[in-house]
Design brief:
Elements: E1 18-20, E2 35-40, E3 42-48, E4 53-59, E5 63-65, E6 69-73, E7 80-85
Antiparallel strand pairs: 1-7, 2-5, 2-7, 3-4, 3-6
């Protein structure tokens, strides 16, 4: 039973779906994330929803980054076990 199923989904509400991420320089995520979970630490090279590309350096394993990412780029990403949440 989901007591919150009738509540609207907003940018600050908990994630309802997710998918494993395979970093790629050419393929965007299936949809813009609300957050990224990093299972095994390292660098995370992302393109954010507004088009800015940034590298989060030395992200610890088990981190949850509340970012709206469009791409997780392979060229600068050393982290693994990445899950996009939306």
């Amino acid at each position: 039973m989901d007591k919150f199923s009738n509540f609207p989904t907003t940018p600050i509400s908990p994630a309802r779906s997710g998918a494993q991420v395979t970093p790629s320089d050419a393929t965007a995520l299936t949809q813009v994330s609300r957050a990224l979970y990093v299972g095994q630490g390292g660098d995370l090279d992302v393109t954010l929803a507004d088009g800015d590309t940034v590298i989060f350096e030395a992200v610890p394993g088990g981190s949850l980054l509340p970012i709206r990412a469009e791409f997780v780029r392979a060229s600068g990403t050393t982290a693994s076990g990445i899950i996009a949440l939306w």
